[in-house]
Here is the input.
Amino acid sequence: QVQLVESGGGLVQPGGSLRLSCVASIRNFGSRAMGWFRQVPGKEREFVAAISGADGSQYYADSAKGRFTISRDNGKNTHYLQMNSLQPEDTALYYCAGRASAYTNQYSQYYDYWGRGTQVTVSA
Here is the structure.
């Protein structure tokens, strides 16, 4: 039974930091590309970051570059999103996702498994 569970969201002031975690009950975790997406009401789901299952390489949306870091711990079947310098525009429901493929992709339709989301709210 495949299950992805995000945690670590919350309310943070502008300029603050959060670290999101995603624990995946999934076979061959270490060989899968894993990612983070976010969504706000009225907008399509937006790619944030992904990490390869082939070589651990990281890919980021322009909005995330320089502020966010994706990482993984294959021994724990967990991947993370460290978010620094958060801004109100980062407010969204953040979803973790996994692929059958080892290769990163920015499009949500190429991800096979999803968590239910964790809310990040950036506000004073």
Remarks:
- The mean pLDDT is 97.
- The chain is about 0% helix and 45% strand.
